[in-house]
Amino acid sequence: MSNSFLQIPIISWMNIRNIPQRLGTSSVAVFGVACVVGVFIGVLSMATGFQRTMLKGGAEDVAIIMRSGATSEMASGLGYAQAQEISHLPGIARNGDEPISSPELYVVVDVTKRTTNSSANVPLRGVLSGAFTVRKNLKIVEGREFTPGTNELVVGRAVQRQFAQLNVGDKIKFGSTQWTVVGAFEAEGGLAESELWCDAKVLQEVYRRGNSFQTIRVKLDGKEGLAKLKEGIASNPTYNFSAQLESEYLAEQSKPLTAFIKTIGWPIAILMAIGAIFGAINTMYTSVSTRTREIATLRAIGFGSLPVAISTLIESILLSVIGGVIGAIVVYLLFNGYTVSTLNFSSFSQVVFDFAVTKDLIIQGIWFAVIIGFIGGFFPAIRAARLPIATALREV
Amino acid sequence: MYYLYFIMKNLGRKKVRTILTCLSIVIAFLLFGMLRTLGSAFDQGAELAGEDRLVTINRITLIQPLPYNYLAKVKTLDGVAIATQANWFGGYFQEQKNQFPQFAIEAEDYFSIYADMYALPEEQMKSWKSNRIGVVIGKALVDKYKWKIGDRVPLIGMFPQQDGKTTWEFEVSGIYEAKTKGADTSTMLMHYSYFDEARQFGKGTLGWMVIKVKDKNQSESVAKQVDALFVNSPAETKTSSEKDFTKSFAKQFADIGFITSIILAAVFFTMLLVAGNTMAQSFRERIPELAVLKTLGFSDATVMWLVLGEAIFLSVVGGVIGLLFAQIIVTGAAESLAATLPGLMMTSQVLLQGVLLIVIFGIVTGAIPAIQGLRLQIVTALRRR
Prior knowledge:
The complex is a heterodimer. Chain A is an alpha+beta fold. Chain A is built from twelve helices and 14 strands.
């Protein structure tokens, strides 16, 4: 047995050195696997990228309070009185005497998307000064903040790149109201960068919302904050709103689309892999049949059938992995960071995100290649092991 | 017939190889059928859209309501045959993940404007109209939630009622049928009168208007007249044909069509390479035989056609099986996905493209060996071993 272990590397090395002689069929197998792994990583990187953008936007120490039953910010609504009461609930962090809270309005407006040249639902958030305290990762990177009481907008970096008329200094009309873009902000690539922001008071007036809001974000006071806040809400039966962590809310919002991409992506990848396996099997059968005499000679001079079989498997897996690596590199170069924007049905508004080709995805892709190589090499390996030595030697 | 026999014999020579090649072609066309169907499902709405229908929304965006009295003003326009309105209810059943569209509408008008797409039996319409909290549902909802006529269905909605409650009680009064294939049956329809009376906010507003024009050639001018009615008012409108409306809505989902075409291109390229390479290889091995055929008196062209015929034959067999499988899978998936992705079906257009591709696939994979066969010099070929 130890003898056959020694034989494996010898035969495998011989096979591998001979690959150039079978360059045509070998490169087809490599190429086939490269495409499969490329598509696999490409599709899933879309899901990963979307999820990353959604989750980055959510802080662990911020709670979002919405009307009970509301599935998204847009579906929620809170009166002025409620907003006042909410900010005085327990569990909310304070800055001196003032609770750190941010009552907000969330609507969508039609803005023209650059790629399709048709209008899409871009979120417009009406905020007060509290919004900038609650979100600490937000930075104005161009221009300035809007002046309260005016029709001025600051826009997220991501949405600014994907949609028209959002450069600093541009004037844009929503309905019959004209707005001026005065600044752009970044939020570490999070969801907020897909939004337009303006003064909540102005938005209330333009949208005829009286002095009501839709959601309130509050900074939580330590680890116990959320529990205390929930307790405070539960203690009053007339309250018809509920609190949840911002990060959990956004994770929930990202689920349907991520699941959709994955349920489409996996079957495609598996079907393609089956196709690539057929290609690999063909390649390996060819490899075995062109090496018939070589294998028979090896067997005749004392090499075992198991090492011959395993060396065929190794060749197949090696070709596959080379293909997988090529596929991963190409997809990384082409797609990583490629920005798109889509309608997130949960919030009925556009989310701008980048494809994210992560290390995990690449590792998964390479494993995928190994499996293809293994299955593709399996039957040819058995054939190689079972070659009848005498007849094979006679073959031309 | 005679040549077909010859081709079959040749393909039967290395059965494993033939089957593997054929299977990779099956996979290519299976994926083609499925992906193209998925891509076109997003444009489906536009294809089903009525040519004589217009949709009017608030110029700011679809979700911003319009005053209810706009409807009466639109009805006075000359070119308008019927006008009605709808509202987004935005509710879910028991759990957040059970979301499906619900519209608050006016029963008679809604069904007469969509008479080409949906039908509700006369007696169900009657009992629905007499039931304030009545709703009608489509097949997709019946299948998913097993609701039947007379069932009480509580929904949690985004609109609170007068007393602040967000749970709304409804009763199923009827089940409407889709008259066109692919029409969405996952929508629940409720009475606007009940909805508007019971809700706390937004009273006296409507979500969007649907207008049926008398003459479809007048659509554009009617659309302009509607928008002109409300110009410079606090709530300006945007009216477009139902087709354009659905199209621009579909475009909101990044470019699904574009992404599926990229994937498809990668799939085809891969499979073409895999299948093409095997075919080329099999011909290379047979070059001396082709030379023998020529020696026996077969013309250059015949040899070329034999080779090309074999490639096309393989492509047709694999391609047809693949498309057939795609059809079966899509039909199966359409049933279970009707509530989330309505209108999933393989259109004749997709099938036609598939058939065209099958032929092209065969020609491309067979072209190089076929030309080699055509140019083959008997003497050099026979000498080659």
